[in-house]
Amino acid sequence: MIRAYEVKEIVVGLPLRMSGAEGTQSEKMTVFAQQLRERYELPVHLWDERLTTAEAQRVLRESEISTKRRGQVVDQLAAVLILQSFMENRQSGKIGQDSV
Questions:
Q1: pLDDT tens by residue, 77-95
Q2: Which of 46, 86, 92, 95 is the most exposed place for a label (fewest CB within 10 A)?
Q3: C-alpha to C-alpha distances, 35 to 5, 81, 92, 97, nearest whole angstrom
Q4: Contact 14, 24 (CB under 8 A)
């Protein structure tokens, strides 16, 4: 997929605690991000994913999608929100093009 879509960099959600502290899951994602960097030799960015699932659920509730369908797409929408947040912050200059 990386070759087929000509991926140039990867954004990985970082599950921080509400306080901003890292926990077991964020440590696992940090290791995963490093494995991706080594395997694909691409920049891999860890990005705060706090509240993205809750926001995705809110958006889906408001869109009148059935409960069954919401359950099928909530993680996909949360991933879109993570990437959107990353890209908006990059565009605004809050993060650099080469941030890792």
A1: 999 999 999 999 999 987 7
A2: 92
A3: 20, 23, 29, 21
A4: no
3-state secondary structure labels for all residues of 8-41: CCEEEEECCCCCCCCCHHHHHHHHHHHHHHHHHC
Q: How far apart are CA 34 and CA 40, in angstroms?
A: 10
Task: Write down how long the chain is.
Answer: 100
pLDDT at 94: 76
Residue with tokens 């994602």: 29
Q: Report which residue type is found at 89.
A: N
pTM above 0.90, yes or no: no
Q: What is the share, in percent, of the chain residues with pLDDT greater than 70? A: 95
pLDDT at 96: 61
pLDDT(67) > 90: no
Q: Could you give the CA distance from residue 17 to residue 50 in angstroms, rounded to a whole number?
A: 7
84: part of which helix (H) or strand (E)?
helix 67-91
